[in-house]
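Amino Acid Chain and Its Fold in Token Form
===========================================
Purpose: to set a sequence beside its fold so the mapping can be learned.
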Amino acid sequence: MNVPNFLTLIRFLLIPVFCIIYFSNMNYSFFLSMIIFFIAGITDLLDGYIARKYDLVTKIGTVLDPLADKFMTLTVLFCLAYKDIIPHWIVFPFLIKELIMVIGGINLYKYERVLPANHYGKTATILFYISIFMLIFNKTLGTYLLYLTLVSAVLAFVNYLKHFLNIKSSL
């Protein structure tokens, strides 16, 4: 297992750690769980950077990395909605988008094709992290940024869908 894939594995392992801390009764559990979330974000940046810089990109890494991101993103959204920090409805568009992306990814993987991350998806991810960060300090502003993130995620989804259809038609 190379370093980028190990960092992706760590991100998967941080998901239950996030949940345990988030729902614990300890002091500052919300703040501490957000630190775990941002550590996961740092591992996401590092694994991509290391994989590209040192030519350590693997097929399994290109599949597991976005999957770890999706699980972490959805976990955070579900947890925040559960405690009424964000509106419950906002979880569902993200959930639908991610489910379709996973199903499409599995479909392409059967043909040994992978839909790589693109600029739109990365922008949506960065906006997601910023909006969650803002929720710590200003719930209203963080929520509005999350709405902007949703718009960005939908635009990214449309872009991924176009690429998916192009790849599918070439099979």
